[in-house]
Design brief:
The chain has about 200 residues and is an alpha/beta fold. Helices cover about 40% and strands about 10% of the residues.
Amino acid sequence: MLNNALKKSNTVAIGGHIRPDGDCVGSCMGLYHYIRKAFPNIDVDVYLEEIPERFHMLADTDVIKHEISDQVYDLFIVLDCGDSARLGFSYPLFENACHTLCVDHHVSNNSFAEENHIVPEASSTSELVYRLIDKDKITNEIAECLFLGIVHDTGVFQYSCTSPETMEAAADLMRKDICPNEIIDKTFYEKTYAQNQILART
């Protein structure tokens, strides 16, 4: 599904939900790096609201666009977003795109795109992106992004949504020479000074 849609496109936009969390950022940036690797002829852009500082450890987060233009994309890919309203500022790009595709794991998703890959039992959208892409094209950058997304939506593999398939995906991503402990510590457990102050007062 994903690769077929990409083969028909010259320009692609990727968008996620408002107030992007780890899975949203990880899946969007993971797919961005995958398209650049597997389809170098495609012009691809990512549209997200400002992301939390801790996620800037991922490669090329500085390319994320926070404003839209009047460009019409061949394909708009929605990730980790249960309905079109949650796209926020990037919704007009979705509405005007020639084709739309949604990949999501939220049970509330109403299949609002032209093509939809909705798997509620999946741990995360990052896991779904991992399943959809060509495994031999997974680079270190892609692996870091998707691993981060899986970590955040599984509570570091503690939530009930963590399946054997989730662990197998994470294991495969770890083989791409990433630093899983650093990703987990810096983006999931590490707190800022202000956060620690609030916690102490609580």
